[in-house]
Batch of 2 targets.
Target 1
Amino acid sequence: MKVTLKIWRQENARSKGSFQTYELDGVSVEMSFLEMLDSLNTKLIKEGKEPVAFDHDCREGICGSCGMYINGHPHGPATGITTCHLSMRYFKDGDTITVEPWRAKAFPVIKDLIIDRNALDKIQIAGGFISVNVGSAAESHAMPVKKNNSDDAFDSAICIGCGACVAACKNASAALFVSAKISQFALLPQGRVEAKERVRAMVAKMDEVGFGNCSNTGACEAECPKHIKLVNIARMNREFYKAY
Amino acid sequence: MTKLESKIPEGPIAEKWTLYKNKANLVNTANKKRLDIIVVGTGLAGAGAASSLGELGYNVKNFCYQDSPRRAHSVAAQGGINAAKNYKNDGDSVYRLFYDMIKGGDYRAREANVYRAAEVSNDVIDHYTAMGVPFARDYGGNLDNRSFGGVQVSRTFYAKGQTGQQCLLGTYSSLNRQINKGSVTMYPRREMLDIVIIDGRARGIIVRNLITGEIERHSAHAVVLATGGYGTIYYLSTLAVNSNASAAWKAHRKGALFANPSFVQIHPTSIPQLNEYQAKLTLMSESLRNDGRIWVPAKQGDKRHPNEIPEEERDYFLERKYPAFGNLVPRDVASRAAKERCDSGYGVGETGLAVNLDFRDAMKKQGKAAIENKYGNLFEMYETIAGTSPYNEPMRIYPAGHYTMGGLWVDYELMTTIKGLFSIGESNFSDHGANRLGASSLMQASGDGYFILPYTIGNYLSDQIRVPRFDTSLPEFEEAEKEVLEKINRLMSIKGTQTATSFHKRLGRIMWDHCGMSRNEKGLLKARDLVTELEKEFWSDLAIPGKPEDLNMELEKAGRIADYFELAQLMITDALNRKESCGAHFREESQTPEGEAMRDDENFMYVAAWEFTGDTKAPLMHREELVYEEVEVKVRSYK
């Protein structure tokens, strides 16, 4: 099939970007979205042009590298998957597909579709850990953990840090991302010890690095490729109130 | 000439590590601050080491090519992590885990290292649990275990099909704690392009900033490589597409021996290639073999829908050939058996290069909910990619390049043949012999990073406390940077017509066909010529757009492929040299009448460690003879 691609091109962080239009023929429904972009890039290189820069790595939906705004949705029209898993089956011959980087104040564009997500790391550095030194851990079974709590902690812990929640949010809030980590540790006995310090530090950093506030719209949950739930945000708020 | 000294401590096997630790030299806390350590890579090994060393008080600089350390490829490991806890009371022990790894590795691993990996495995689990890694639990609140390929006990800890992700995010959190404290400085989006050696010791690295294209110099008292494996040499593999061998290869060119490069594990359960544009193969966790049954039609070329093929017309070939282990035979055995069936015309799917992995019987017995609970996310992932649901019909699977047992040669202290250069995790060769057992890679990478390297590197650094920090304007840095720039300029000035990826695909195909699951002398010799020709074409017709002083992903790819051409030749040389079949290395000339791998212990019970002698000269082989004092060497049989 043939598609028309409107892709955001931006040389670097300082330059002004714009949409460029490309016609791409020979697209197969079996391609993934990124493989379609690979083939566009091959074509561009052969024409002596610069390929479209985008982040990608594992291509199996777990590393969180890839992410682009496709036709108005983070990771494209399908739900529960990352861009690398998005199949071209979701598009049809003659479609025009608009591709943009994540848009958020805290995510400056580096080049084309590549953005700087370091702000997410900064929040994790501020408190996203349990302070345990290597070698000082007790025997694992010394402290049983309720299966329900452990399972819920797992469901929060599977966040891949792609930033789709921020991109989906009209306020560019990172609440879902931050609350997932806070929840994971809040649900486990080993994480309770530092719960107060953690939530204070992470929330403060979240505000400091330029993310917006949460207004409970729920776009983040709808677009999260890993189905991280809104209940995490409620839990983060509860933890936050408890901490003061 | 480099001499191999494995430095295995004296004493009985169960006491070697304790005795080593008792006698290892220490660096006092105040002096640690004066010592810089560079760690390249942020997977379980790299970030584990960086955070442990930071905790100890060293000044650590940690590098990765990804935009965040949380994306290192350990994240993609699915099935689990082994430990000898014996929580199931099924007779497991440190010794048995050690024994299984030695046997699984087909008696080509160093006993002392393997024992130590098994010994620290329990500490690894305790540490992850304490860090908040949500491993699966039972209703009593204790950790659950499952069985994994090639063993008869249940010792695998897991977090659904995302164990690697959970362990990595745990490790990332401990790294973050040290970054917060200021003991670790993180350098993301940097690719290591050379190692700097001063007076015979590793003292720094040259990296390229992948955003600005700037070449940077970083110095340290010791350098640790935790840069993973080279499975992407096949182009299509289960690895992240940017995984590469360049850091290890640069170290090899500077004097670090490369051991058993041809030992590559082909994973039996990957989703088969669906189209020619495909950039990678997605793994389906081996844990699926606990409940899934592998079969092909008993009749050649049977193209009926799998659900329409009655029981008596199905060939459950693993259960038939290996009744004791059935679907749980080790990866190399399962892969070769699948290849044999497909090569003989029994394969399924359009290409005939696939076999069925069927959950019908398991769902009948345990119920759909139980299966969903164990494998839900894997089934979802399969459906997303392949377009059919494993709840309704069998999965189709086929082997794919997965893990490299070969890597930089290291001694008992995990130090390469370059003083002060350490290699941990998949990037070294040490613990898996000729074949790795499932769920042992997370175990080894974590053990190396958290519990082994922090001791051994201290022993090395103890006499370095008076060595002042190195100035990066030293001529050695100057020289290394010059070499790096020359290489980049050489690549940029080709100005040909073919993309880096197109060369990578062709190289991958040559290696898969002739140095993949099954090898023979004729094919290997042919591959050697084909790689030489392709390499020439690469250096005369490669196209790289853009500038080197900018974010340039094509330049990154080209540099990695240039190194892969050289590594490919070494893999071929190693495979040619090893005229026996062992583990994942199957030489067609060395098989039993039934087609099983035949080892030649008399002539090949050694580690082949290769020394780089120059671009136009043949590599020089050093042997580390393997001595089995503890385990009786037997024919590895899973029948």
Target 2
Amino acid sequence: MECIITIELGTNGVRVFAFDLSGHVLHSMKGHYPTFHTDPDHSEQDPEQIFITTLYVVKNLLNQYIYPKKYKVACICFSAAMHSLLAVDKNGNPLGNAITWADNRAKKEAQELRRSALGSSLYAATGTPIHPMSPLLKIAWLRNQDNERFKQTSKFLSIKSYIIHQLTGKYLIDYSIASATGLLNIHTVAWEADALQYAGITAAKLPELAPIFTTAGKLKMAYQQSLGLPADVKILIGSSDGCLATLGDGVKGEGKATITIEDSGAVRVMGPTVLKDEQMRFFNYLLTDDCYVSGGPTNNGGNIFDWFAKQFGDFTQPFDITHSIQQLLDEAAQVPAGSDGLLFLPYLLGERAPIWNANARGAYFGINIKHERKHFIRATIEGILYEIYSIGKSLGEQRTIKSLSVNGSFGTTPFCTQIIADMFNKPVHLRREFHSVSFGAWLLSATEMGLYRSLDEAARIVELPDMYEPDQQRHAMYADYFNIFEKLSTKLFDEFEAIGNLQQQYAATNLLPHNSPL
Amino acid sequence: MHQFVLQRGKSAELRLFPHISELGIKKNGAIQLNTFLSTATEDIRLYYILDGKFGWRINHQPYVLYPGDVALVLPGVPFGSDNGVLDIGSFTWLHISMQKLENGHLLPGKWSGLSESEGAAIGKILLLNYSPVLCRFNEAGKILKCIHAELSGHEIGYQTRVNHQLDELLIQTTRHMTMQSNPGRDFPKTFMHLEEALRRDLSYQWTVEEMAALVGLGTTLFTERVKSYSGFSPINYLINIRISEAIKLLKRPDISVTDIALDTGFYSSQHFSTTFKKLTGYRPSEFRKNHLYNK
């Protein structure tokens, strides 16, 4: 019997799934790797630890669950978080850590480029919003601020490209990850000359472009041995987590959109054309050369509710946040939809889509004397979801959305899924096991292996059995409150900036320990 | 409450307790200058506030302490107040001499009833989780009061009881400090602190008990939480870090494989080689040949 292994190189760790050829999950395992913040704006990961963790998890999964059942691995397919950047020398050895999507060091470069005419034309050509997350701006930052490393760099890789290079010796980058670098022209599917020039590099400094179905070379002998894999195991380069979550939910075709809410979130559609937007709010990434995954990302998803739980939840057992969150959800359910008019702006981490304002901050609004603790709980959840709705609404200006699917641990909480259905006034589908990204990677592998004729055909087999129907009355109420939410999200622009500046200014002087109010 | 000071070498009460270098109670009725000057000693020093409010400087940082708070001063840490000012109020204190090992680790002495591994773990955690002010730590006040009573009462068994109380004080202090730095809410953050501590001292032979104590959990619950968060058992996660660090060192030409093995916490280069090969398919020397940085 053959099986397919999918490897998802995520923000917090690696997730490895084993599927049989009918798409059933045989087993899955994960391995955490840390993110280092040596500076508040920095967010880095150790490429060696990512590699070792990946090997470790794959090896354990194969030895413990796959080989004992006599499965043979036919194919290994990769997915990865977007926007990472790793500089390597001419021997392929890392020059420092990998810089993740959450890194903000290039904020000054981003601000300048976003305001310029070049910024608009690069956005239109590359589909990547002008933002510090973009490898384009990270490379520009390295050139400006770490010129020694910049000059030593032989290749600028993504984390996935590095892992593939370790395994097979090839420097490759798939279309999806490449289209999220800010350096790829998504219309011609070639590196964009203006972007290369802005970054100060030539195409030779980047890995070779490869469609998502590309076999990324042959697995090195040493890893064949340590992992017990056959020499002919196919290493598929695969795609990005965002693109594969969209594919994995079957969102190929008209009228569908998918919502992902893990720590952060996104609303995405898929189609043969890009979304054009003068305000540069949306991304357009490539799944294949004639299929775009478009949408908007938010910084503030489940991580904001985690924050709330850590501050205000009850912990009967140390570190039992699952229990704490369940209690909060139970309490929130005692409050009617709309939280009796208490609104929450969830911008604790600044915001990307749709307002693209790094200075934005959180706020509770409309508090009256009757509001209780439970109202704050519900308002917090509703605020996170109003923001998701806000992205969906702006996407709806360009695409007709008839039905939605939801994935990610926060979004698939029944309480949240129902609110999403009510806010959007649309039916929401989801699957019981939450692995849309890996299932997308399975669909990709199965198509490559000839089990389906095309990704379209593969996407059509996706069944999302659970459905939530919207409630008209609640929808009307949410729509009324959303009007105010939407106004507040931009109305406070100057004050967001002012408070952000003060927070930064006084953070420097308030470094004294907590109990020394001298 | 009577004021008193007992000092090693001077007070007969301490004859049986050479590890206690000083203890006492002070009641200060008026602000005094030049009486509480900054000093650094080789003892662990604990100051428990009974009443009033004291502005002290510990390790160059200013703190204000209120009744129920404890100032914990580790060996070598400067402690006192600016201009030697002593505020109005009262406090009680205790100085204990610890054994200091070559690697800087602290151990309670032979007097202690703690097992060797628990004593070592407590010494390590005090250093790693060190926060100089322990807030609302009333247990410490009770233990100090009990020690005073035993020392003045001389009842049968008092020698044993005093040492028991000292052990109790070390245990409670460690637990309180860990609780204060890891309030049991944010596992990702706590795990990151743990990871930093492991990386700072990767050559050390960490035990699960020590790691668990560092975050203030029992070993069973700790192992469960680590497994569900990281996907690995604590020891396997540690091996993971060790190999990742070893890979980085292997890429540098200036350090021998044996040194790398020991620096990253493997027992021997053989142990390192076997573990490394099992995971990567390469022996460390082969891996090095293929991956050296250009000089």
